[in-house]
Amino acid sequence: MTAVRTVACPNCGGTLEVRAAGLSVNLACSYCGSLLDIARPEVALIEAHDKAARGFRLSPGRRGTLFDVEWEAVGALRRRDSGYTWEEYLLFNPYAGYRWLVLSDREWQFGTMLLDLPEGDDDTVTWRGERYTRDGEASTSETTAVLGEFYWRVRAGDTVEAALYERGDTVLSREGGGGEVNWTQLVPLEDGTVAEAFGLVPLKAKRAVRSPVPSPGIFDDLPTMFGLASAALVALLLAMVLISGPVERASGSVDAPFAATREGVKIGTLTVRRPWQFVTVTARGSDFDNRWVDLDYSLVDRATGQSIDGYGIVEHYSGYDSDGSWTEGSRKGSTLLGKVPRGTYDLYVDAAAHGWPSDPPPNTSGWSSLPETVSVSIEAETGALPWGNWWTAALLLFAFPCVAVWRRYREENAG
């Protein structure tokens, strides 16, 4: 189409082609995204970046024929206003000049810059004898990503005041900024036409045409999502409290020996008064260190002799290494026995103490030798709340709105 000039990016050294040499003044490096001044023979760095804009549907250098003219995409912009994000592609032909391809809501439009300007006011304008009515409110459009070359200075963060006027399928776009006002005629193009012209894969789905009424912000439904999740979580907590039932407690203690297991120590008796209840068994060790105690619980039904078993542990360790002193473990441990049916139960415990790194020797006193023990107090109570289930429900209920926030934040800040 025209002679291509090759330049090197002063920031990353990448080799770049200037497709509209002599006309383009601004080039965004396709390797690092830096903005270059190519109006002069020596390429100057305007603004350095370390990441090029990605994700444009039509990359610079791609050619296609529309309206019997072969166009080459030389630049791409991603822009947004308060409710939409869209892409604009600058097309170039050395004999026909510049045109635009606009992709918004999966709808393509072909744009031609106007030399004969419309006349009118903010609400209606007349162009070539036809009246156009404003589409929605005027808004501020911001450029969020730049790729390729342009015949004017452009960079991410540039803003313009924009308004649209429509008559049927034809739209007139007015953009003002920097003391200039530019008008562009936009006519719709079928996705299949653009895809066939530039060798693109057709878009999978087509969204609704842009509404003349500004849409609500993309985060407006999130309070509803979080509100419903919070309400469900509170309702679940109330249900747990209601079904947890009356509280009964039983307590006792056990002296756990080393190198042996003290079996069948009865802690106390509990009565489960609801058809099903949770029972929590909490163990608290005395002041010990570098020790642990294994606790095997048996909740035995007096009527049937059947037992519900559980395991608990209390442990505490400390020491000193190159990073300083450290501690690990807890002298308190809780075990939740779930789905305990109505009835009267005796709680028994088997306890065995262990030393780290080895069990201590028996204490010698006179003619006898007694093993050291670790004293552990045990308390069991009915009516416990299954907090683990509640936290799991909270995680699941808030997962969807949190993912929605993350996805929409990415879409909002794309480019």
From TrEMBL:
Positions of the DUF4178 domain: 60-184
Pfam family, one: DUF4178
Superkingdom, taxonomy of origin: Bacteria
Alphabetical UniProt keywords: Plasmid
Protein name listed in UniProt: DUF4178 domain-containing protein
Provenance organism: Novosphingobium resinovorum
